[in-house]
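Circularly permuted type 2 ATP-grasp protein
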Amino acid sequence: MAKFFNEMTADGMAHTASAEVREHYREFCGWLQRQSAETIERKRAEADLTFRRVGITFAVYGDDAGTERLIPFDTIPRIIPAAEWKQLQTGLVQRVKALNMFIHDIYHDQNIIKAGIIPAEQIYKNAQYRPEMQGINVVSDIYAHIAGVDIVRAGQGEFYVLEDNLRVPSGVSYMLEDRKMMMRLFPELFARNKIAPVDHYPDMLLDNLRSVAPMGINDPTVVVMTPGMYNSAYFEHAFLAQQMGVELVEGKDLFVSDNTVFMRTTRGPKRVDVIYRRLDDDFLDPLAFRPDSSLGVPGLLSVYRAGRVTLANAIGTGVADDKSIYPYVPDMIKFYLSEEPVLNNVPTYQCRKKEDLAYTLANLPELVVKEVHGAGGYGMLVGPASTKAQIEDFRQRLLAKPDGYIAQPTLALSACPTYVENGIAPRHIDLRPFVLSGKTISMVPGGLTRVALQQGSLVVNSSQGGGTKDTWILEK
């Protein structure tokens, strides 16, 4: 069995009396050992019932039933000590700052291309590159107002960035609801442990969005724009609008007149200044992108180009979270900030390069191979968990379109004790902290911890049956 870093115990064992518990878990572990199995099971059932009643669901693609279901919630938290969080936060702020500078650069002076650091075709042939954004100035030069950066832990406990989610990153509602649930079920734990709060995230998000309103707007109107109730993350869209106290709108609720965006209300048209949009670029404006889109607002791009509305995140942001651009982020940090990266990337082979492709083809059973435009754990090969037939099928895909893939070593992701059918056992996890960029860069101390519930699985995505945990950042 492969060795991996265990978040709770120093010897890699599950929660047992003989395991050496890490210092920051000792208070919780002592409490857990005093709880009866019946008490914990009753609390878990209560959590499931409450989540079902509130409607915290997620569409699981490929599910034969075709219905939405609960994201499994685990009552054993992921705990991070203050010093580790400080390092993570420093690295995340640095990374998102550089990514915003990169997006501004490629749509303006393109200095990073001129310097020979990133090949021009990697930008211009990228499916997420939007030539319509060339030369357009956005407020404060901020493109990724909300970033969800996926962090994993491997080796002796080193943190790595697995990917950058800059388009419409989701999951923050689960972070907030997981915390509310833990406080409801186990209030005594929050009296005994100094756990940094996360419940102010909606206020921080609203302040961040208001700070990037168009020039001259002192009291901006902010809305959350959703594709509609059939979107898999609709719960989150409605939740964030409600928590921020702003309107949740669909494209049909908005219209353009006099180079301004308006919202239809019972009191007549109301100007909209900031749109936190939760649908992809292609669907935003049928006059500019997909003409068959019924989800967008005709004429929205022209208002945006004129600087009379802010879109968060900006159009064209996805070019920076594409997996073919990911290997260059450390170079971006050095180029734009003249700093060494605080957080490392996972070593990455770019299959468009002849030597990287040769290595990947020779080592498929040991590697993870991902589509550069893929998301949600789809379109990927986890070599050690794949059959010979699956590996050979992927080999043919790689040979047919090598520039569509990257490959990475299979990391022994860290594990955290988790309730499973047979009791408590280690399960692999990742972490998605959320970074807000506006006049300043800010974060709440925490994030969404996702857990792969199947034994040995490294795929934590909710869309493929993964679960979530509350994430505790301990205050000093």
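thats it. The mean pLDDT is 91. Residues 23-214+309-343+411-473 form one domain. bye
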